[in-house]
Amino acid sequence: MPHYIGIILDEKRLEQVKGTPVEEKIQPIFGGTLKMLVVEVPDEKSQQILKEFERARIDSRGFIEDVPVAFRRAVFEEIAKAKSLDVIDNVLQRLPEIQELAKKEAEYIPPPEIE
Amino acid sequence: MIVKTPPPHGGRLVERVVKKREIGEKMAAGCIEYDLKPTTDPKGVPIRHVYREIMSVCYGFFSPVEGSMTQNDLEGVLNERRLENGWVFPYPILFDISEEDLKSLDVKEGDRLLLKLKGQPFAVTDVEEIYKIDPLDVATRTFGTPEKNPEVVREAFNEKHPGWVIYKCMNPYVIAGKWTIVNEPKFKEPYDRFWFPPAKCREVMKNEKKWRTVIAHQTRNVPHTGHEALMKNAAYTGDIEPCHGILVNAIIGAKRKGDYPNEAILEGHEAVNKYGYIKPSRHMVTFTLWDMRYGNPIESLLHGIIRQNMGCTHHMFGRDHAAVGEYYDKFATQILWTEGIPSFGFEAPPNEVDLGLRIIPQNMAEFWYCPICQEIAYSESCGHTDAKQKFSGSFLRGMVAEGVMPPTVVMRPEVYKAIVKWWKVFNYPFVNNKYLENLDRELEIDLPPMEVPA
Ligand SMILES: [Zn+2]
After folding, report:
1. How far apart are CA A44 and CA A66, in angstroms?
2. How far from chain centre, in Å, is Cα B21?
3. DSSP 3-state assignment of B144?
4. Residue A22 CA, distance from chain mean position
5. Band of residue A115 on the pLDDT scale cut at 50, 70, 90
């Protein structure tokens, strides 16, 4: 059974995929208040991701969650680069680099600037 | 059919907190002293602190339990979820101690032991019995097995279940006896404004809030709009009118990495009433100290007892109530409260047996966002199952970690601001090692200095 990774698109990310073939794959959720790209992950690769990140899990919707922010960022970067959702292999090749970044965010994530 | 406030479980509220300092000092004088320690897992991570159980017993949340259980109470609880006096109670409540510590203390039955916390006198225990347990056996019988409890247990409990690990990591000796708090602790901010022990909670709900019917909401999470919909809709039950009040009761205790900090959970729920999503005249936030055992149906019994003692008439129970993993059937709690679970001692629901609970269960299914109904819909009403968009706690955590502000339809902006407020304090939106170390050292309270007369 395949699993999924959902990538939320904020304004900046939306801008980066505008006019590419990815644009029409954008799914509006929660009444259009959020926009998301869904990357399908074959079973053996989702197992690899679960093994790689201690806290990662698959939720009741079949989505891989509780992965490091660095992992999601890498998924989006690869999407923007390839202009395609077929990027999971490229992301997995970057695992060592993602693990390095993930270690740092285990103790510190900068808070957002809101009042 | 007017529903009335139920009596406390066991008939009267336990109140074992000495309010007069001189009396507390006198009670502590001349006792053998013992510094309370956390229970740690094999890696040394604190997973439980008995101080929280002493607080919940002495302030009456766990009425009629008055202290660390005797062997007869323990066997009764493990065999049929009943204390020796017959009242229903789900979990062993034990003051456990290592063989080494027991030897060096040299206490015996009839002695009074002074329990110290953060270097100060905290409580005394009047030793009734000292006995040995097999922690693994206690752990396994507490939660059940697929063989003995086939109605609801699906998988054998193991190292991945945090509640089972708590009991398994206990020390092999138990000092049984009643506890009395002799030096009343002061809660730190923001805990202090959410502290409503049962006697006070009953008084506030009756005299200030003027609630006749109150439905309890269990939480260990920052609320999203799915929780809010659950609270609002479950509260339509009541008697001749919807429940007057909604009592949020957060379980505060040992945390796991990735949880939201306690402070954000309490202030997140508070934001729901402060900013009018459920107005404060109908909604109130409180907490109970307890290192959650994730016992699904077993935990639901404790939740029922706590909130009945606090004066609630109703209690909402969802799917996977207080659950982790797939050890129990998804509907285990709902099975317990609709037909009972004979292998756990319930031939009928716990509110229909002698010496059982008097709180009324309100079993609820699920809420999701439906893009066709264009609203937050109830799973048993909305027919667009294929289109559902579930509220997933981990999905939301991912969004928060990425620094994306969740839309109002998913999480209220003021609730999100409560997360960010504590994120700025701890430099992290969730519980991490630093948070755990700090919580272990500081706990939720401070103890005023107390000189014990020699
Ligand atoms: Zn619908």
Report:
1. 18
2. 29
3. coil
4. 14
5. low
What radius of gyration, in Å, describes the C-alpha atoms of chain B? 22
Q: Do A111 and B427 touch (CB under 8 A)?
A: yes
Please report the ipTM that was assigned to this predicted complex: 0.89
Check if CATH label 3.10.400.10 holds for domain B21-187: yes
- Provide the pLDDT for residue B454: 74
Reported as a pLDDT band with limits 50, 70 and 90, residue A24 is very high
Q: Report helix, strand or coil for B220.
A: coil
Token pair 């008697």: residue: B239
H runs (alpha helix) in B126-186: 135-143, 162-168
With vertex at residue B294, the alpha carbon angle to CA B140 and CA B41, rounded to the nearest 5 degrees, is: 65
Contacts of residue A70 in chain B, CB cutoff 8 Å? none
Q: How far does Cα B368 stand from its chain's mean position? A: 26
Question: By the CB < 8 Å criterion, does B371 face chain A?
Answer: yes
Q: Which residues of chain B have pLDDT under 50?
A: none
User: Residues B47, B166: contact at Cβ < 8 Å?
Assistant: yes
- Tell me how far apart the terminal alpha carbons of chain A are, to the nearest angstrom: 43
What band does A114 get if pLDDT is binned at 50, 70 and 90? Answer: confident
- Decide which of 3.40.50.1480, 3.40.50.620, 3.10.20.30, 3.10.129.10 is the CATH code for B191-439: 3.40.50.620
- The whole-angstrom distance between A21's CA and the closest CA on chain B is 24
